[in-house]
Specification:
Elements: E1 7-14, H1 20-30, H2 48-53, E2 60-67, E3 73-80, H3 88-96, E4 100-106, H4 113-124, E5 128-134, H5 143-154, E6 162-163, H6 172-182, E7 195-204, E8 208-217, E9 220-221, E10 225-228, E11 233-236, E12 239-243, E13 247-250, E14 252-253, E15 258-262, E16 276-279, E17 298-304, H7 310-323, E18 328-334, E19 338-345, H8 348-361, E20 366-368, E21 372-373, E22 375-379, E23 384-387, E24 399-414, H9 418-427, E25 431-438, E26 441-449, H10 450-453, H11 457-464, E27 470-480, E28 483-490, E29 493-494, E30 500-503, H12 504-521, E31 529-535, E32 538-545, H13 563-582, H14 589-601
Helix pairs in contact: 7-8, 12-14
Length: 602
């Protein structure tokens, strides 16, 4: 049985691409977790998509044995966390399972927005923090400047900051020694009643649901009867193990340790992240505080390009949801796109990754509608409705007010780009809160409506600043907004897939742009097609697609306006009116995709 004082549980936190997974590789290698032959780059990034994009999506854990310079044997439990804002819920729950954090800052880039967000999360739960300055092997590395930035922007003492290089392995031993001397060991009673935090869960084809746990008090062992406190369900532990990073079976997990258990659960929804697990025979009086459940903030429709792939898409979504409880979906149908699903995501990167996995792992060709956010609709009868899809907006006469979600955004940028960033934030109805400097970098804080940010904010920020600015956000509240539903009509028929919620001030311009785009993308028919943008019953923009004009007079020779010519033209006119009345306009998929791109190009 391990001594609880010799255990160190810590998370690795940093901005995207600052070297978390590479340093985790070095630590694993240094402690002999894997042999030279088994090592590969980013060993903890198990998904293909993580390895290709070079990002971490799922937090991963490893248990390592380390012999310190003082001769004692220590157990190190590492959690390697994602750096991207969409996956910050992974970071928050990983931090709860640990007592300390290693903060990695790229010494060539300095402090970035996500560095700040993750450090504040760690400080909020009283973590001890070890700053590490990575990439010292690069010629652009500037240790003094980076230390100064950490002190100014974050306010952490950098006297003990460790220079290191994930690439060459320099400084890794120093990090391990600092982990042991600076980070506290876990507190807990081995002999107490079982109290355990459910940190994460995922589906395994052979074992069913695998549950990642952090034991606070007591011990969890094979064949023990346990109870989930949020559902009051009881289960028998079939398997207990740890990742080293290979999964290894053991008999029990003691207080302060992190490992996994399986209990024969087949459905992921039975395991709520943040739940408390206790001994079924000795119930606890109160559960652990757990953490806030992750709520989807961006919604969009996913439709198969070929309607025969509907079932394939449904199966793919269900399988992805097994490993990602933060993603939700429900069936919806659209007159233009057929049957599909309304899906909820944590952000645009999350959306991108889920759609890419569907296309790659399940071989489904997808069409994605415009991403939107959740609005709160306050009705005149005092009821509140959550609106996920603009096409289901209730009658405007029954609505008292509409509230939209707002975020607090932190942008860190080199000084020379500040003017254009402030202009973009103001164009998107932003309210500036704060502006401070650290050297030649500005840290600017804005409050912005989420639906202005969700589509193209990050792309525009990166292109406007040549990739130097970084951006992080958190949702703060819903606020009343002057919002309207912009509907698009083609041949007087509403196209629900193109409906969008938009601020009144931007409606006219956007409506005009959508109509112009559709005019170019919808092929001509035998009759004239009006393309209109409307708010309620009021048309605010219109374009007309001209019909083909068949020359019915070719057979007639000779000039002059004869009765025969007039009769033929009259007959053609009637035919066109009739085909306009009954003719269906087929809107090609390129038209939908083209409209979705409008906002990105603006």
């Amino acid at each position: 049985m391990s001594n609880i004082d010799n255990i160190r549980n810590f998370a690795i936190i940093a901005h995207i691409d600052h070297g978390k997974s590479t340093i985790a590789d070095r630590i694993i290698h240094s402690c002999g977790g894997l042999t030279e032959r088994e090592m590969k780059a980013q060993v903890l990034d198990s998904m293909d998509i993580e390895r290709e994009r070079g990002i971490t999506i799922k937090a991963q854990t490893v248990k390592l044995n380390y012999k310190a310079k003082d001769g004692k044997d220590y157990i190190l439990n590492i959690i390697d966390t994602p750096g991207h804002v969409d996956f910050s819920y992974e970071v928050s729950r990983s931090l709860y399972a640990c007592e300390g954090s290693i903060l990695i800052v790229d010494s060539t880039q300095g402090v970035e927005a996500q560095t700040l967000a993750n450090v504040y999360q760690a400080l909020d739960i009283d973590h001890e923090i070890v700053p590490v300055l990575n990439k010292v092997d690069l010629p652009a590395s500037d240790l003094d400047k980076t230390k100064k930035q950490i002190e100014e922007v974050i306010g952490i003492d950098t006297e003990n900051a460790i220079p290191c290089s994930g690439k060459t392995g320099e400084g890794i031993e120093d990090i391990l020694e600092k982990i042991i001397t600076i980070l506290p060991g876990p507190k807990g009673e081995n002999l107490g009643d079982l109290k355990c935090l459910l940190v994460d869960s995922w589906y395994d084809t052979y074992l069913g649901v695998v549950i990642l746990v952090r034991v606070i008090d007591g011990k969890i062992s094979k064949n023990m009867k346990i109870k989930m406190m949020s559902t009051n369900q009881e289960y028998i532990v079939e398997k207990v193990g740890v990742f080293t990073p290979k999964a290894i079976d053991i008999n029990e997990l003691n207080a302060g340790e992190i490992g996994f258990i399986t209990t024969g659960i087949k459905v992921l929804s039975e395991t709520k992240v943040g739940d408390t697990i206790c001994d079924a025979t000795k119930s606890l009086k109160e559960a652990l505080p757990g953490f806030k459940p992750s709520k989807p903030v961006v919604f969009c429709g996913l439709f198969p390009v070929d309607s025969s792939e509907y079932q394939k898409l449904k199966d793919g979504l269900a399988k992805l949801q097994l490993n990602d409880a933060s993603f939700s979906f429900e069936p919806e149908s659209s007159s233009a796109l057929g049957l599909g699903f309304r899906c909820g995501f944590l952000g645009l990167l999350h959306l991108e990754i889920v759609t890419e996995r569907l296309e790659r792992e399940f071989d489904v060709n997808l069409l994605t509608t415009t991403p939107g956010v959740v609005y709160k609709i306050y009705m005149n009868n005092d009821s509140i409705v959550d609106l996920h899809n603009p096409s289901s907006l209730p009658d405007p006469t029954l609505i008292r007010l509409i509230e939209e979600p707002w975020i607090k955004a932190t942008i860190i940028t080199p000084d020379e780009y500040l003017g254009s960033i402030i202009k973009m934030c103001q164009d998107k109805r932003g309210i500036q809160n704060n502006l401070s400097y650290s050297g030649n970098r500005a840290v600017v804080s804005y409050e912005l409506p989420l639906n202005e940010v969700v589509f193209d904010f990050n792309d525009r920020l990166k292109s406007m600043t040549s990739g130097y600015a970084s951006f992080d956000y958190e949702i703060i509240e819903h606020r009343e907004g002057d919002l309207v539903k912009l509907g698009i009509l083609v041949n007087s028929e509403p196209v629900d897939a193109l409906a969008m919620m938009i601020h009144k001030d931007f409606a006219q311009r956007t409506g005009r742009e959508v109509c112009e785009k559709l005019k170019d993308l919808i092929p001509r028919h035998n009759f004239m097609i009006p393309v209109q943008a409307a708010i309620g019953g009021k048309i605010i923009a219109r374009e007309t697609i001209k019909g083909f004009k068949k020359d019915v007079l070719t057979k007639i020779h000779g000039g002059g306006a004869t009765d025969r010519k007039r009769k033929l033209l009259e007959k053609q006119k009637k035919g066109k009116a009739r085909s306009k009345q009954f003719g269906r306009v087929e809107i090609p998929q390129e038209a939908f995709i083209g409209v979705l791109k409008i906002s990105k190009e603006k």
